[in-house]
Amino acid sequence: MGPSELLDGVRLALHSVYGALDGVISPRVFALLARCGIQPVLSPATAALPFVASPTPVVLCCTVYLAVVALGVLAIRSSNAAPLARDPFPLRTLIILHNCFLFVLSAFMGGGLITEAVRNRYSLWHNRYEPSQLAMARLLYLFFISKIYEFGDTFIMLLKRNTRQVSVLHVYHHCSVALIWWLIVYHAPGGEAYFSAALNSWVHVAMYLYYLLSAAIGKDPVRRRKYLWWGRYLTMMQMTQFIINMIESRVVVSGKNPPYPQFIANVLFYYMISLFALFANFYVQKYGSSRRSIAKLKSL
Ligand SMILES: CC(C)(COP(=O)(O)OP(=O)(O)OC[C@H]1O[C@@H](n2cnc3c(N)ncnc32)[C@H](O)[C@@H]1OP(=O)(O)O)[C@@H](O)C(=O)NCCC(=O)NCCSC(=O)CC(=O)O
């Protein structure tokens, strides 16, 4: 058997394994959604794009992600490995490139979404989804794919052995956001969805700048205080984003004759409550306790 026949065989085997998994996963996801009163219809604007027509690819990505994270955390904890004192050169370069890429991509998506919103004469809120707005649909599709690429953040945490960063908040956020955006891109990739994607993209411009600086600076506490003092304001900005999305989904999209699918607005509303609660807890743990520990040090 030649190498090309071997490759064909592997491709065929993978294809049939995927087919079998799709036969199991896809009907169950749609049955679960139907039980929650959600009956999504595949949008013609994104139907032909990879990872959209079936929930299986995104579900498989999330499953592999969760398995890698669980195994990684277990391995680090069982070997009692401490976080790296200093990132070795290749890892530091990888982290800087990853953050640069996400910084630029977030700005591109944030700018593109606003440009498309202006071109289609959207108002700030209350926008109807039109399948003919293909450029908007493609940008939202890119936003969905970027959420899968952002799984790389967690792999960076694992490579640095920073298990403190691999929190319930972090893993829940990364996994759930990919699943929710699959649903949006499947059913209504346009209209009101532009708002939370644009807002989140601009928040991520600030977030990846923060992570980029932290990787470039290293662990020196003096330089961290000098260049990363705004971390707490970044967390506040993220929480404000969740509140704005909550208000948007409740006030603008619900009610009689909503311009955007009501079930997506409802999913967004409850999802934002969960993120806000987790971030409020993160804020108190991280910044509340640092204030307390400074006060404790001063009282010594
Ligand atoms: C200030 C925050 C942005 C980040 O809080 P952290 O506690 O993670 O911040 P930190 O100061 O410890 O971050 C510095 C450490 O991150 C490492 N680091 C660098 N780049 C990274 C990357 N792309 N992903 C993960 N970690 C990274 C640095 O090397 C450094 O490690 P070392 O210290 O070892 O040198 C916060 O507001 C926040 O978001 N907290 C929630 C935790 C989280 O997972 N956030 C991201 C996804 S949530 C999200 O994205 C919400 C949204 O949509 O707005």
UniProtKB/TrEMBL annotation:
It is found in: Membrane. The chain crosses the membrane at residues 57-76, 96-115, 135-159, 171-188, 194-217, 229-247, 267-284. InterPro entries: ELO_fam (IPR002076). It is a multi-pass membrane protein. Coiled coil: none annotated. GO terms for molecular function: fatty acid elongase activity. Its main location: membrane. Keywords: Fatty acid biosynthesis, Fatty acid metabolism, Lipid biosynthesis, Lipid metabolism, Membrane, Transferase, Transmembrane, Transmembrane helix. It holds the Pfam family ELO. Signal peptide: none annotated. GO terms for cellular component: endoplasmic reticulum membrane. GO terms for biological process: fatty acid elongation, monounsaturated fatty acid; fatty acid elongation, polyunsaturated fatty acid; fatty acid elongation, saturated fatty acid; sphingolipid biosynthetic process; very long-chain fatty acid biosynthetic process. PANTHER family: ELONGATION OF VERY LONG CHAIN FATTY ACIDS PROTEIN, FATTY ACID ACYL TRANSFERASE-RELATED. This is Very-long-chain 3-oxoacyl-CoA synthase. It comes from Klebsormidium nitens.
